[in-house]
Each structure stands twice: as C-alpha cells, then as structure tokens.
Amino acid sequence: MRTHLRHGAVLAATTALALALTACGTDSDPDTGGSGDGDNADPSQPLSVAANPVPHVAILEFVRDNLAEEAGLDLDIREVTDYVTPNTLVNDGDVDANFFQHQPYLDDFNAQQGTDIVPVANVHLEPLGLYSSELAGADELGEGARVAIPNDVTNGGRALHLLASEGVIELADGVGAEATPADVTEDNGITFQELEAASLPRALDDFDAAVINGNYALEANLAPAEDALILEEAEGNPYANFLAVNAGNEDDPRVERLAELLNSDEVRQFIEDTYEGSVIPAFEAPGA
Q1: Cα 51 to Cα 83: distance, rounded to the nearest angstrom
Q2: Residue 51's beta-bridge partner residues?
Q3: Which domains, and CATH codes, for the chain?
Q4: Which residues form the signal peptide (predicted)?
C-alpha cells in the first residue's frame, strides 16, 4: 500500500471558497504598494506576498529568516491555501505579490478574470504526479477504475497529458494544454472525476488513483519523488512556479530584491536539500 495521507493536511474546498470571497470583499491597503506603480513604491515598507504553504511559504520563510535582513527587505508572508485567493489579493492591491502559480494557470486566470498579473521570476517546479492508496503501478488502472484530477482548466489538462504520456489513456491528436475528459479518445475503461485541486489528497482513498499537484502532495505528507506512480519530467516542463505582481509593479525595488533572493544559490541549495527531487529549482526567466 502507498504512503498513508496525513488526516486534515489540506483544507476543504469550501474553506478555500470562503477565503476567496473574503479576499474579494477586502478594502485595498494603500501602503501595500499594489497600485501598479512600482517605481513609486516605498522601499522601506514591508513587501507582502500571498503564497501556498508548501513549498512556497517554506521557501519564503527561508528567505525571510536567512537572507532578507542583509538585503534590506522586510518580508510579510500571507499563507493562502487555494489557487484563487492569491491572484484576487494581488489584483485588489491587498498584497504586493504572490508566489504559487505557473504560466498556463496565470494566462487562463487573466483571460477569465480580466486581470493583468505578470510573472517576475521563476523559482521552482513541482512535478505533477499520479498517486494511489492501493495500487502499486499505473498499469493496474483499467476497466472500472476511477481517477480524480484537478478541476481547473490548466492543471486538469496537465493531468490528462501526464496519463497519456504513460499510455494510461489516449488523447485526440493535437489537443493542447487545456485538454478535458471529453478529449480522451481511449479511456481503457477509466472514468474521471474533476475535483478542486486542494481537496485531491484528502479524497484519494475514495478513488483508485488521483493526479495531485506537487504542493498539495507535499502538504499531505506524500513524497512525489518516491510515492508517485507516475511523475512529470522536469526537462522542458512549462509549469515552473514564479513570483508574480500586478503589471507595472515589476520595477518595485522590493520586488526586484525578492526576485534576486529567490534565485540565489542559497535558495537553490535549500530546495535541493529540503525536497530531494520532489521540488526542483527552475531559475530560468519566465517564458524561457
């Protein structure tokens, strides 16, 4: 049997929704620097960053505790568990930056919400993986198997492409990153259930297998490099997670300072030592 999940490691989707609604109703703080005018930001003010707990908050805490003071940066870390609230907070000016997402997700969010959030610096890759509480290999999936995948467009498509790359399913020719279960041309008897990404580890025992984002797998005490039945390759992977801000805030000196620290040798070493291949440094420029 695969590694057991830690009970309660990930908050329920309803909690994430409540957080998102709260963020939508929060008045902007004029001191956050989230006005879209980075050149005029006060470099002496704290830089607030919304981030998912693992590994994002852990990486930011390493920077705050070991590098920020010497760099003259006062880092204010805001922990958020879902994939909607961090962008809502940045868009509304309630935080200066966020750290949780990859380019395909941000592109879709901007298109759907009419926001103008931009990447500043890639930091790491969290390989997406297929997990099971019962199965020893992906080849055991077949007729009657139920597999849960993320319900957001980009990560759902990413999950299906992962399964197709290993021959578990087949996708229609030419289908892109936004593939859905409707694009599956050969399912080998497998049915798919789309769930909010944060809830997937908690629901794993209800399915034969689930495709889980790396950060939520880590929060649930899974080790992607060891526990995943299938794991994404790092080379050529477009899903690096990055620091992001409202367009116009890229030149905020505090943001530039944090970007440099997140791409430092010290952070690379911290990621490699702490996550042992389950999180991979990815310091190339966004879009590279």
Answers
A1: 9
A2: 79, 99
A3: 47-126+237-281 (3.40.190.10), 129-231 (3.40.190.10)
A4: 1-20
